[in-house]
Amino acid sequence: MSPPVPSKILTDDVSLLMVLIDSNPHFWSSIKPHFSFSKFLSHVLAFLNSILLLNQLNQVVVIATGINSCGYVFDSSSGSVSQRAESLLPKLEEFAENDESLSERDDDSGNGVGSSLLSGSLSMALCYIQRVFRSGPLHPQPRIICLHGSPDGPGQYVAIMNSIFSAQRSMVPIDSCVIGIQHSAFLQQASYITGGVYLKPQQLDGLFQYLATVFATDLHSRNFLQLPKPVGVDFRASCFCHKNTIDMGFICSVCLSIFCKHQKKCSTCGSIFGQAQTRDPSASQQRK
Amino acid sequence: MADKQQQVVVKRARHKSSVKDPGTPGVLKMTKDRFTFMANDPSSPVKLNVEFRTIKGHKFTKDGTKQALLNLTQDQGGNYIFEFENFPDRNVCKDFVASAIALSGEAGRTVPEKSAVPIQDEQLSAAEMERRIKLLQEDSDLQKLHKQFVIGGILSEAEFWATRKKLLEQNYSRRPKQRVALKNDMWSTKPLADGQSNRVTFNLTPEIILQIFAEKPAVRQAYLNFVPNKMTEKEFWTKYSRAEYLHSTKNVIAAAAEAAEDEELAVFLKQDDMLVNEARKKIRQVDPTLDMEADEGDDYMHLPIQDHGLPRNDNKDVLDSQYEPYRRSFSQHLNQHAAVVLQGRVIDVELGDTRSVAEALARTKHAELAKDASDVYLDKERLERISRMTEIEDLQAPRDPAVAPLSIKDPRDYFDSQQANAFSTLGDTVSGAKQLKCSVSTREAYCSLKECISEIKFQGLTEPTINSEVAFKVLNGLAQNISSNKYHLGRNPNESILDSLPKITREELLLHWSSIQELLKHFWSSYPITTKYLLTKATKLKDAMSQIYPKLQEIKESVQSDLRHQVSLLVQPMLQALDAAFAHYDADVQNRSARSGERPNGF
């Protein structure tokens, strides 16, 4: 960690930016005709360098989100001198190798793009931020930005919601820039709940302009700016049993887990759902 | 405990005419519409036979106090006090009385708009009813819902309040009334002086006297000491006014001379020792960890130009030290005055009696002093704060980071954000994933990823990073997006489409929405239907909902054409929810009729 900073220099607009980059190879190969990973990286690297230029004390940490693992690939405050963003490239290559080695040998998944481990990288980002919080009374203001394109994995619903709520509690906004084809319900909810910005850029080859206009401002300055607001947020939850997105379902009154079908027992907390057995009217009072 | 449907309660009790009265022992018998009391002693004149219709309320002592009393109050002011042998007895009677009063009240009165009519088989204490009525009076939306459903017979009282227990339990602390503060103008030391005669008039109102006592503790102390022993109040104030006059002339020497002659006057002319002590104490309480850094901007001593700040009076008269105590410092006086005004009114005494005002102020000051002296907690807090500010980092334990408090949001905030749901259907996200076909094996995918990375490593970033035309287009698009959002959703990010609708439509929409929420809540809670009660309830709710349905359609059509789209977007989720409920109900009815075909008993 960098040495403690005297209070005069640590002004309101120093930020710690956690960038979560989607490194799902299936996603990137499926989107290849429109937008390539190299172009994406060049926009993002330029953006990261400009963040580091905005303020001497800004910190940037990049986490790569793969399909089998997540890893830190860049930390601007490591080393004695603040590093340029390009130094993440070798680490990113290493990460891709590692991720590949973790995937099963003969997995020829020609059917659809799987989801990347967004919940894992969100958790890693939040852990890093917690460490910064505990490093002393003076620290930059942290925020998370997700550059994501893979579809939402309904199996990660619970983990992602947990990370969102802990981000909300620690007052860390989660910004989302969705580069995929469709909107991401998870990221919409994340940005709405934590007070971040959600954006789905119309033109991907202008990605740098989007990043610099909307996501580069620090938290203090956001009070004075009007940033794009999404029209609506998809608040639907997914059921815990099949991981489908549902509108109406059953909820355990003890732990608030959601199920799409009537169950005898809650799979999360184990409470047994009572059956209405009796027929006299006085029992109905108790059921309410 | 008492059975709910108890018709008669008979208990031993003593009838008392007042709380202190020992009372006449006897038997108290209560039925639904009247109570009777027969004394044990047949010759006693106490014999009561009172209808509950005349009883308006009941009061009782708390469980565990010396006497188990129940006081039944009448409209005209009469009351009947009964003392019971033990608290369980008393509680049985109390509950019975409550229901009896409610019952007779219901029968006797016509139902006014605002009161909550209890159902017969529910035992409500008067306090509970009062709380409900108060809640209804305070929240007009709740009242509308209540009127619509409970009075309309769709929901019962118990059901309505069953989910609102939290609201009922809040205790409504009385809001403190606004009080008038002290006046800020300092009592002018320029008294009314006629040009002609040598008279100088001072006006002293009780308000001014209060301020004088608050600002100058020495004067207050002198008042308590001198009046009425040494001089009358009028003399006291005359002397005080003389002292003020002398000060206003700024003639320190004359002040010294007069003080030497008149001992009491000297008290007013000298500096206020009590104030000095108070000031010292206050200085000690200042936080030593307060970081007040001075820089060049704070240096007003050596300013080249005299316009900044107060003009310095360099010609200080150097007087003999014997005159020093009689010099009055304006800035000290101003500070003291400001402190007193900001503190506000500390005492609550009537201003007419000067002596009591002085005594009350003296008491307050004493209490403050005593409190400060014994405020160990304050010291501990200060020490903690000092140690925190001058921390030795490696010796300190890590402190927990700040967290946002839990906030449970009002569902109405989410009302407008539901628009997205109107677009998407259930299968949307699943089908979305299928749009992206990845016809490449995993290995190839990773290969291309790594290729891209090495491409950048060797070639560097693309130059320019972004085409200027593209950047321009992006900026335009963003600006348009933001301004159209502003236009549609209002200037204020919190403002919504609702505010641009005419007021009546908006109220109607919100009312329908909250009624639908309420109805749906009860509707879904009554499934699965196992009893006849639930069946009738579900049917009633469904009918109520089907009445609201066409009203929503009407609203959609009645709005102006440019807002129609937004309104239909708002209304859509409500209609969807209603449709789902109707579908469920119909399916259930079909199942039921299919099953009743098998079982001849039905249901």
Automatic annotation (TrEMBL), chain A:
Location in the cell: Nucleus
Keywords: DNA damage, DNA repair, Metal-binding, Nucleus, Transcription, Transcription regulation, Zinc, Zinc-finger
Listed GO biological process terms: nucleotide-excision repair; regulation of DNA-templated transcription
Domain of life: Eukaryota
One Pfam match: Tfb4
Claim: DNA damage is one of the keywords in the record: yes
The keyword Zinc-finger is assigned to this record: yes
GO CC term (a single one): transcription factor TFIIH holo complex
Biological function: Component of the general transcription and DNA repair factor IIH (TFIIH) core complex, which is involved in general and transcription-coupled nucleotide excision repair (NER) of damaged DNA and, when complexed to CAK, in RNA transcription by RNA polymerase II. In NER, TFIIH acts by opening DNA around the lesion to allow the excision of the damaged oligonucleotide and its replacement by a new DNA fragment. In transcription, TFIIH has an essential role in transcription initiation.
Assembly with partners or alone: Component of the 7-subunit TFIIH core complex composed of XPB, XPD, TFB1/GTF2H1, GTF2H2/P44, TFB4/GTF2H3, TFB2/GTF2H4 and TFB5/GTF2H5, which is active in NER. The core complex associates with the 3-subunit CDK-activating kinase (CAK) module composed of CYCH1/cyclin H1, CDKD and MAT1/At4g30820 to form the 10-subunit holoenzyme (holo-TFIIH) active in transcription.
Protein name as catalogued: General transcription and DNA repair factor IIH subunit TFB4
Species assigned in the record: Coffea arabica (Arabian coffee)
Lineage of producing organism: Eukaryota, Viridiplantae, Streptophyta, Embryophyta, Tracheophyta
Name of the coding gene: LOC113742845
Automatic annotation (TrEMBL), chain B:
PROSITE patterns: BSD
SMART domains to which the protein is assigned, alphabetical: BSD
Pfam family, one: BSD
Record keywords, A-Z: Nucleus, Repeat, Transcription, Transcription regulation
Residue ranges constituting the BSD domain according to the UniProt record: 111-172, 196-248
Location(s) in or outside the cell: Nucleus
Similarity comment: Belongs to the TFB1 family.
Entry-linked SUPFAM superfamilies: BSD domain-like, PH domain-like
Protein name: General transcription and DNA repair factor IIH subunit TFB1-1 isoform X1
Superkingdom of the organism of origin: Eukaryota
InterPro entries reported for this sequence: BSD_dom, BSD_dom_sf, PH-like_dom_sf, Tfb1/GTF2H1, TFIIH_BTF_p62_N
Annotated Gene3D superfamilies: 6.10.140.1200, BSD domain, Pleckstrin-homology domain (PH domain)/Phosphotyrosine-binding domain (PTB)
Gene name in the database record: LOC113732540
Species whose genome carries this gene: Coffea arabica (Arabian coffee)
